[in-house]
Design goal:
Layout: H1 7-22, H2 37-40, H3 45-68, E1 73-80, E2 83-90, H4 98-118, E3 123-128, E4 133-137, H5 139-147, E5 151-159, E6 162-171, H6 174-177, E7 187-194
Antiparallel strand pairs: 1-2, 3-4, 3-7, 5-6, 6-7
């Protein structure tokens, strides 16, 4: 029986392949730029060949995940003052299996509670216009969005004089949710919590 690669091994394989593609060691040579002179001046053939080579390789890794039931979940810690949350997240380069979605759904409530607890004194903003703008919202707005949320993600930006904690509230497949490509079946909203007087940067 042949060895099945683990989640961490697939992440490492993808990282190595991405570097090889970026350095031009892997090109999908049959890919051509559009043929439209207006578009072609902004896109190099080699750049498109590198991008396509990596996307094709990533698609084959996703198929490997499905065939061998290799989870796309990695476990992370979010530290906030004296509190720590250990939570699941689908790696950005992998896909979520159905079993992964179950894990994310089970973790949803505890992740929401943690976020609400650590951001209770912060101002809340909803990401709008594909993340280009942010609209001020309140806790009731967050609760309304949470009712239709299947899973959540967390991101923290912090330095000596700034703190932002982002809550991604999603539905459907995580790999299709962030960039609106899976709508309406997959998608997400981003809530930004910042200290009073600050504005989101993430």
């Amino acid at each position: 029986m042949s060895k099945v690669y683990t989640t961490q091994e697939l992440i490492q394989i993808l990282a190595a392949e991405r570097q090889a593609c970026l350095k031009g060691k892997r090109l999908k040579l049959e890919v051509r730029v559009s043929g439209n002179p207006v578009i072609d001046q902004f896109i190099t053939t080699e750049g498109l060949q590198k991008f396509t080579a990596y996307q094709d390789f990533k698609a084959s890794i996703h198929e490997y995940q499905r065939e061998n039931l290799v989870s796309g979940i990695v476990w992370k810690n979010l530290n906030f003052k004296s509190k720590t949350l250990h939570y699941p997240e689908v790696d950005a380069q992998l896909i979520a299996l159905n079993s992964d979605l179950e894990i994310l759904t089970k973790a949803r409530d505890s992740m929401l509670e943690f976020w609400q607890e650590i951001t209770s004194e912060m101002e809340l903003y909803l990401s709008v216009s594909n993340g280009k703008q942010h609209a001020r919202i309140n806790k009731l707005d967050v609760e309304r969005i949470a009712r239709r949320t299947e899973w959540v993600g967390l991101i923290k930006w912090e330095n000596t004089n700034f703190l932002e904690v982002i809550l991604q509230m999603g539905w459907g497949k995580p790999e299709e949710a962030a960039y609106k490509r899976g709508k309406p079946h997959s998608g997400s909203e981003f809530i930004h919590a910042v200290n009073p007087g600050n504005y989101p940067i993430g």
